[in-house]
């Protein structure tokens, strides 16, 4: 009698989506599957806290964690870079980080959870002259640069979303003599309600920040930036926090992607052409019947990782998967130590009228950040422990912040 081997499940990416997916699969399937998570480094970094790391050295211990400590013992961890996905062969190619040895690995199911980073090459000069906080290494470089400049140096942050806001307010609170500016092509806090944006503009950490809205940056120079109108704005340090980009792995592998390179998946988190490949988190976009385009955030990645696992489990057990549903509740951000802003949202991520401000919002935001990591530990201990609020089946999910 021939004994079939357990299905081989590969997960590319060790962020929120990848870890949650791996732990749920391992806890639910046990020895019925062999699960490997592939990531280029052994650390899990809470990117939602990197603005704190950029501003002060004591923030890093709460931001960086051993990836092995967050994974169930039965999950294999391979420190490697995946260079190509071969869907027709059900294989991936990769290179081990430490040995630099190339390899190829077969899979029965593949979860694409590669996350996102900052597109520093989208504007000329950004890669050469602008810093960012897309990774711990990039944040270290920014912190080193900030340590070199004088106390009253000029720091210009490009972008108007939560990343830019949290960084500039953290710097304003901890280094009040810096000449801080935000330059954005739209407006600061574009997805906030009028009430929330009013509080943001009047927050104490924003009081001395120069804000230039509706001012696209055309080039980053060694001495600052040049706007689309040809104006040169001088700065001792430029930080690019304008938007997110994803790795090119899906596009390079011939998988179906959207205009930004995100893997297109259906409402079951499967790629339409190959249901054995699933996506979750920032590197994927749901192209379901209700037209979901969800915000790039851990609030999206964690439930998507859990749902990708549920789809795989249902298939292996001969059941039909459920469509993915998610109800957003809030958009929370820090405005420097002791201050914050929490915008209540409808299930479809549209702002509602309720806004929490000041210290209560700061306390909530800190709890929210801790919760995002805690659910990974809960799932490691008991598969299925993490639950999320699901939108009604008739609800239409629309674009949120990116």
How would you describe the overall organization of this protein?
- With 402 residues, the chain is α/β, with parallel strands linked by helices.
- The protein contains ten helices and 23 strands.
List keywords for this structure.
402 residues; alpha/beta; eight-stranded mixed sheet; five-stranded parallel sheet; 10 helices; globular
Helix and strand layout, with pairings?
Blueprint: E1 8-12, H1 16-29, E2 34-39, E3 43-45, H2 50-55, E4 64-66, H3 67-70, E5 76-86, E6 91-96, E7 102-106, E8 109-112, H4 126-129, E9 130-131, H5 136-148, E10 154-158, H6 162-174, E11 179-183, H7 194-202, E12 210-212, E13 217-221, E14 224-227, E15 232-234, E16 237-240, H8 249-252, E17 263-265, E18 270-271, E19 274-279, E20 284-286, H9 298-316, E21 330-334, E22 340-345, E23 351-357, H10 358-381
Parallel strand pairs: 1-2, 1-8, 2-5, 8-19, 9-16, 10-11, 10-16, 11-12, 17-20
Antiparallel strand pairs: 3-4, 5-6, 6-7, 13-14, 14-15, 18-19, 21-22, 22-23
Helix pairs in contact: 1-9, 1-10
């Amino acid at each position: 009698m021939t004994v079939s081997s357990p299905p081989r499940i590969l997960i590319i990416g060790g962020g929120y989506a990848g870890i949650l997916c791996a732990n749920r699969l391992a806890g639910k399937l046990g020895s019925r599957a062999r699960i490997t998570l592939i990531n280029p480094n052994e650390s899990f970094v809470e990117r939602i806290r990197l603005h704190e790391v950029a501003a002060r050295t004591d923030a890093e211990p709460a931001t960086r964690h051993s990836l092995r400590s967050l994974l169930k013992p039965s999950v294999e961890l391979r420190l490697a870079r995946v260079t190509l996905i071969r869907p027709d062969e059900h294989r991936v190619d990769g290179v081990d980080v430490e040995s630099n040895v190339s390899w190829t690995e077969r899979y029965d199911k593949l979860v694409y959870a590669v996350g996102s980073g900052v597109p520093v090459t989208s504007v000329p000069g950004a890669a050469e002259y602008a810093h960012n906080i897309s990774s711990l290494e990039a944040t270290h470089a920014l912190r080193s640069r900030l340590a070199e400049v004088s106390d009253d140096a000029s720091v210009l942050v490009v972008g108007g979303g939560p990343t830019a806001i949290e960084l500039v307010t953290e710097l304003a609170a901890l280094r009040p003599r810096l000449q801080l500016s935000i330059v954005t092509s739209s407006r600061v806090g574009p997805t906030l309600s009028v009430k929330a944006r009013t509080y943001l503009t009047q927050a104490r950490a924003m009081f001395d920040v120069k804000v230039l809205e509706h001012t696209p940056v055309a080039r980053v120079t060694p001495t600052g930036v040049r706007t689309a109108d040809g104006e040169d704005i001088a700065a001792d340090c430029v930080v690019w926090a304008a938007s997110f980009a994803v790795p090119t792995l899906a596009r390079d592998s011939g998988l179906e992607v959207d205009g930004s390179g995100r893997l297109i998946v259906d409402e079951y988190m499967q790629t339409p052409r190959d249901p054995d490949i699933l996506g979750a988190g920032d590197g994927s976009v749901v192209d379901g019947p209700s037209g979901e385009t969800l915000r790039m955030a851990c609030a999206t990645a964690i439930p998507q990782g859990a749902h990708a696992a549920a789809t795989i489990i249902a298939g292996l057990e001969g059941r039909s998967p459920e469509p993915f549903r998610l109800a957003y509740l809030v958009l929370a951000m820090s405005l420097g130590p002791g201050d914050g802003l929490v915008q209540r949202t409808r299930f479809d991520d549209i702002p509602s009228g309720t806004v929490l401000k000041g210290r209560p919002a700061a306390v909530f935001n800190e709890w929210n950040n801790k919760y995002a990591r805690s659910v990974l530990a809960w799932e490691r201990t008991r598969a299925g422990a993490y639950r999320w609020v699901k939108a009604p089946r008739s609800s239409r999910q629309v674009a949120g912040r990116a």
